[in-house]
Amino acid sequence: MKKYILSALAAVALAGSLSSCKDYLDTNIYKGIDLETGLVNANNVSIALNGAYYQFQRYYFTGTYAVAIGDVVSDISYWNGNTGHWNNLYEFSYNDTDTYLNNIWTYGYKVADNTARVIKAVDEIYGEASDSEKEELNLAKAEALALRAYANFYLVNIYAHQVKVNGTDFSSKPGIVLVNEPIEALTEVSRSTVGEAYSSIVSDLNQAISLFKQVGDRGQKIYMNLAGAEGLLARVSLYMENWADAAKYAQDALNDGGNPALAYTADAFKALYANSTSNSESFFQNAINATTNWSANSAGTLWSTYNFSPNPYLKSLFAEGDARTAVMEMGENNTDAVPVYNAGKFHHYESNNSAYQTNYLINAPEMHLIIAEANAKQGNTAAAKEALLVVAKRNPAITSVDDIKGDVMQFIKEERARELFQEGHRLWDLRRWGDKVSVSAYAAPAINYSYKNYDISELVFPIPVDEINAGFGVAQNDEWPNVMPK
Q: How is 164-221 classified by DSSP, letter by letter?
């Protein structure tokens, strides 16, 4: 019997390093530890957690796909037509058999299931553990809770409606299947609501933050940590339009992350992307490097060889001398009509091999922008401009809040486009703001789009058809074909 992700999660490996692409659903060990019987001590739990990290950062999930979709399907990227990668999503011609959507779903649920197993194992063995083991178990649980929240956050955004759209609540819409406990094979499941999914995400992050404060974290950005969990909760709170919480957790993340100074010159900004550990503005990242990377499936390949680039509209938003344009170099075969990007934030300037660059997932500049937006939405324009200035000073023409002109919310929207490009935020920003937008750019260097005045807040992707056809209770987003741009 062929297995699908939610009908066979009990048999999913905690990491794919021992299994091929064909057999990951049929293996139940990670480094020799049986998932059903082997999570009996702190050491084994920690090994299993490392497996969850491995799945989390695979190119099927945060290594490339789950992050890239937020920029590719938006108003700021460009596909030059020379390859067939991602073009169905970019051009809004995808269907419910789309490979990228299928893999994001599969690996998101791998992470959700893997972390649920770690959390359950910690709870079961905690009472008999020694004091030192309890500290290790608490840390493992904190990281697992935060990773599960992160996976669920991607899943609910990609496969469900935005929770809030410019003040309108959509929390009663169909959400995702929540894996609060490992799901046994052949179990009937059902989707939560969007609101229930967000409540679960917030609960997991609050528990993780509490545990990190109790036992500390590893002090390494490749592992989820206190600042990373707070930063993710700030982002989640922003999407929920819980403005005060968004600002609070963003400031907490900055404080607990050491309040890093931002780069304001071209050389300093470029140095942030010299290698896979060089971004001093980041709080949490993947462990991708010269020896552990996704080669042709890397994010760097997508933004170079696979012919995606910043589009003419995005380029028009940058003032001359903006530090961020230092990484917006075009490739050797670039022309105005057929843009070829040099990978941008994924260039890995130390080696010039973009496959080696990591995804910096939770970063200080986003926190400043969250504080700015939260204050703007609460009517505190002065505080919004102060937070906005920290990032906007990457443009040398902006030296004080007096240089932030016009509608502050519009400035924030454009600043998020400039600052967060290639970090996977744009699609979700456009949906939650509820603006009518233009998507699927063509005819470079002109600013032109295939679809204009599109209500992108209604966009929802299809759940993979294999999951639906497995017959274990996952209902399709029936409206998905009707809400694509026409």
A: EETTEE-TTSB-----SSPPPTT------BHHHHHHHHHHHHHHHHHHHHHH---S-T
